[in-house]
């Protein structure tokens, strides 16, 4: 009996077989220019505001890579993940984009 690995994508006409396989193997897929430059800039600004604690959405969790602190101090460059940001309307808008 050979264990079956779960499949995380479904057959559709949105992704090529190669894209699906890359996602299955790596857990992410990069699609360039999927989101407009204007939107990316808006999300980047909001990310920076969260990192600098200019805004504090309820429940947001900021994960930092402490090994980078000696190189970058307290800057946003040590932040490797922001999670539970659903209460931040601007950043959560990314999740609702039809392209995504």
UniProtKB/TrEMBL annotation:
It is an enzyme of class 1 (oxidoreductase). GO terms for molecular function: phytanoyl-CoA dioxygenase activity. Its EC number is 1.14.11.18. One of its GO terms (biological process) is fatty acid alpha-oxidation. SUPFAM superfamilies: Clavaminate synthase-like. Coiled coil: none annotated. Signal peptide: none annotated. It comes from the Eukaryota. Belongs to the PhyH family. PANTHER family: PHYTANOYL-COA ALPHA-HYDROXYLASE (PTHR21308), PHYTANOYL-COA DIOXYGENASE, PEROXISOMAL (PTHR21308:SF1). This is phytanoyl-CoA dioxygenase. It comes from Certhia familiaris (Eurasian treecreeper).
